[in-house]
Design goal:
The complex is a heterodimer of chains A (about 375) and B (about 80). Chain A contains eleven helices and 15 strands. Chain A is α/β, with parallel strands linked by helices and about 375 residues long. Chain A has two domains: about 170 residues, ANL, N-terminal domain (Rossmann fold, 3-Layer(aba) Sandwich), CATH 3.40.50; about 160 residues, 3-Layer(aba) Sandwich (Rossmann fold), CATH 3.40.50. Chain A is globular. The termini of chain A are far apart. Chain B has one domain: ACP-like (Non-ribosomal Peptide Synthetase Peptidyl Carrier Protein, Chain A, Orthogonal Bundle), CATH 1.10.1200.10. Chain B has five helices and no strands. The longest helix of chain B is centred in the middle third of the chain and has 15 residues. The radius of gyration of chain B is 11 Å and the shape is globular. Classes of the chains: A alpha/beta (about 375), B mainly alpha (about 80). Chains A and B meet through helix 5 of A and helix 3 and helix 4 of B.
């Protein structure tokens, strides 16, 4: 099946067996494509005992450690075909992943992301408050994961405003005016978890004490990028939601899990608090001892597969995150596919994620 | 100004190109028309014609020619 055809299928409509068939076919094709086009990937496949023609399920495909994109420049296209290079977020001193995109992959990322997010927000565009500073998207040739996230979500914004100036100070008057201007409309808020907490939530609390109150009961917040810092501050997901609701009435809050190495295929949190895999990608939880697949309810390392990457061999990756499969095809929200939760980074893994790398600065 | 002139003008101003170059432009064909430039272009088109594009149309808006086609087909703008 072509990727165009896949995009026509509603993102959470397939049951396990149907999804397995379609995704396996596509991922086998991608494995063959990258084996042919990317010499490093070919060398890796040749060094392991693996027969692509014997694959019956995408769970059998080899996976690359996500770290490899920091050490090697892996791409399956000529230099001339690269239209965008994306980098992972890293704290200072860390090396970053480099992901090379051509037109097709870049466009499929955006299309996929729109399909997934629309399932939660509706297809209409909304006035949008970006909970970040304008300078993040400045370097247009080298996109940080943070910039890419903002830009990707910007497509949902009809009118947009950045909530912070470049010193990360909340533009109180600007936001106030913006909310007045679009009173009665659903407003989209987008930002990275730690920044939402540190520069938005805390500021709203301070303003409320001075009698300045924002009513965002009509808004929807989408946030991602990692919980590490908030876990350290002992702020749980439930508390994050409850306290935001208390301070500004914000009731619709969706976390998401995603990474620059598989941009487009994000895992959105549903109304029941579960992260969901769409038909465009999947998570496989593996045991750290032997990489065999965990049972439901068992904590393990997360492998992610994505049907998108054609310009770089990132369609099957072992992350450094820990998670747990909660169920498949039977979430009360009605969406098909696996749903899961994340426990955060493996111990001794590098700090990653737009939220966490930014938050690391607050320890210095 | 006719709708065509307005449309052409959006490209000329958004990407600092001549009218002759504008009509042949494609998404990611010049450094200015990248994903950041694209969102700027969309905003300018929307302001100029007082419309709001659907997300699908923003994604499909892949060239000067294609954009014109989308505007006339889906937004009743006559060129």
């Amino acid at each position: 099946m072509s990727y165009e055809a896949l995009l026509e299928i509603p993102p959470y409509s397939l049951e396990k067996e149907e999804k397995k068939k379609i995704l396996t076919e596509r991922l086998v094709e991608l494995t063959k494509l990258h084996k042919e086009k990317c010499p490093e990937y070919r060398a890796i496949l040749n060094s392991v005992d693996f027969d692509i023609d014997a694959v019956e399920d995408y769970e059998q495909l080899p996976f690359l450690p996500v770290r490899l994109f920091k050490e090697l420049e892996l791409k399956s296209i000529e230099k001339e075909g690269v239209v965008k290079t994306m980098t992972s977020s890293g704290t200072s001193g860390q090396s970053v992943s480099k992901i090379y995109l051509d037109r097709v992959t870049s466009s499929n990322q955006q299309k996929t992301m729109v399909k997934i997010v629309s399932d939660y927000t509706g297809t209409g565009r909304m006035p949008m408050v970006i909970l970040d500073c304008p300078s993040v998207v400045k370097n247009r040739l080298m996109f940080s994961a943070r910039g890419a996230g903002i830009l990707g979500f910007s497509i949902f914004g009809s009118k947009k405003i950045y909530a912070f100036n470049d010193d990360m100070q909340l533009d109180t008057d600007g936001i106030k005016e913006f909310c007045e201007a679009y009173r009665g409309e659903k407003i989209l808020l987008f930002g990275f978890t730690f920044m939402v907490w540190q520069h938005f939530y805390k500021e709203l609390v301070r303003l409320k004490e001075k009698g300045i109150i924002f009513d965002l009961s009509n808004a929807i917040l989408i946030h991602g990028g990692g919980w590490k810092k908030l876990v350290n501050e002992a702020v749980s997901q439930e508390e994050f939601k409850q306290r935001l609701k208390d301070v500004c009435g914000l009731d619709s809050i969706h976390d998401y899990y995603g990474m620059v190495e598989q941009t487009g295929c994000i895992y959105m949190q549903c109304e029941c608090g579960h992260l969901h895999a769409s038909i465009f990608s999947d998570v496989i939880i593996r045991k750290p001892e032997d990489f065999s697949i965990c049972n439901k309810g068992e904590k393990g390392i997360i492998q992610v597969v994505s049907a998108i990457p054609e310009s770089y061999p990132g369609h099957s990756l072992l992350t450094e995150d820990e998670g747990e499969l909660l169920g498949e095809d039977d979430c009360p929200c009605g969406r098909k596919g696996k749903y899961f939760r994340i426990y955060g980074r493996l111990k001794n893994a590098e700090i990653r994620g737009c939220s966490d790398t930014y938050a690391a600065k607050f320890n210095e | 100004m006719t709708n065509y002139e307005k449309y052409l003008n959006v490209f000329v101003e958004s990407f600092s190109v001549s009218a002759d170059d504008a009509v042949n432009l494609e998404y990611q064909g010049i450094p200015e028309w990248d994903s950041v430039g694209h969102m700027g272009l969309v905003a300018a088109v929307e302001d100029t014609f007082d419309i709001m594009l659907d997300t699908d149309d923003i994604i499909d808006f892949s060239s000067f020619v294609k954009g014109k086609e989308i505007l006339s087909k889906n937004y009743n703008i006559e060129f």
